[in-house]
């Protein structure tokens, strides 16, 4: 999910660039200072942050290269002509591209930006949450469809397995019946074998008896 924190505060946008004096343009960033500008002894105007960064590298005016010190740099005095010229510059909010309609003087821009960012961030957060809800809803529909598909596959598989189980049960019953018949046949065969052996013994006994009778008859003659 994208972050709702802005990378930086968007700068104001000039309503009419032709009505802004070049003397009020920062000679470093070439933009209108959004906070109270500072002025060098040689009367050149800069953004405070821009000039402080430049003086860390070279302690001279970026415009005419005259040597200066940090104590020489002063903010525009409120109420004076240059301050009034800067304070009355008309600007639009830097968030105008995303729906902010505010227009006003640059001196009021900072106060508006603090308010505007809260509104923009709140709206962005709402939009992000709304988009997230749409995304989750879409995912739920996809999951529901997938679940229905899996259920259909599961039911088909269960039906197939049930049919196979019924076939196996029928085959098992058939095998049981054949096994029972085979056991019965085996038992009957064993009984026949026993009867045959018994008859053999009887035959042997009769044969011996007959032999004895014949011997006795021959002897009596």
From TrEMBL:
Entries under InterPro entries matching the protein: Znf_RING, Znf_RING/FYVE/PHD, Znf_RING_CS
Sections of the chain in a coiled coil: 119-216
Residues annotated as domain RING-type: 26-65
PROSITE patterns the UniProt entry points to: ZF_RING_1, ZF_RING_2
GO molecular function: zinc ion binding
Keywords: Coiled coil, Metal-binding, Zinc, Zinc-finger
Any Pfam family the entry gives: zf-RING_2
Domain of life: Eukaryota
Protein name: RING-type domain-containing protein
């Amino acid at each position: 999910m994208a972050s709702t924190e802005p990378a930086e505060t968007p700068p104001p946008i000039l309503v009419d660039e032709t009505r802004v004096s070049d003397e009020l343009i920062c000679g470093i960033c070439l933009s209108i200072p959004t906070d109270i500008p500072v002025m060098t002894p040689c009367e050149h105007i800069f953004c405070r942050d821009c000039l402080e960064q430049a003086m860390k590298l070279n302690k001279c005016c970026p415009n005419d290269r005259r040597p200066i010190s940090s104590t020489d740099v002063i903010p525009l005095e409120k109420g004076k002509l240059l301050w009034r010229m800067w304070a009355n510059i008309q600007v639009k909010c830097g968030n105008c591209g995303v729906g902010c309609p505010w227009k006003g003087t640059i001196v009021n821009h900072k106060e508006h930006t603090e308010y505007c960012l809260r509104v923009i961030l709140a709206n962005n957060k709402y939009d992000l949450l709304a988009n997230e809800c749409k995304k989750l809803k879409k995912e739920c529909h996809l999951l529901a469809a997938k679940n229905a598909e899996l259920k259909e596959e599961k039911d088909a598989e269960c039906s197939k397995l049930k049919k196979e189980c019924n076939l196996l049960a029928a085959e098992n019953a058939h095998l049981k019946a054949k096994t029972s018949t085979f056991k019965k046949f085996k038992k009957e065969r064993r009984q026949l074998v026993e009867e045959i052996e018994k008859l053999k013994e009887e035959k042997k006994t009769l044969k011996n008896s007959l032999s004895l009778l014949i011997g006795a008859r021959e002897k009596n003659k």
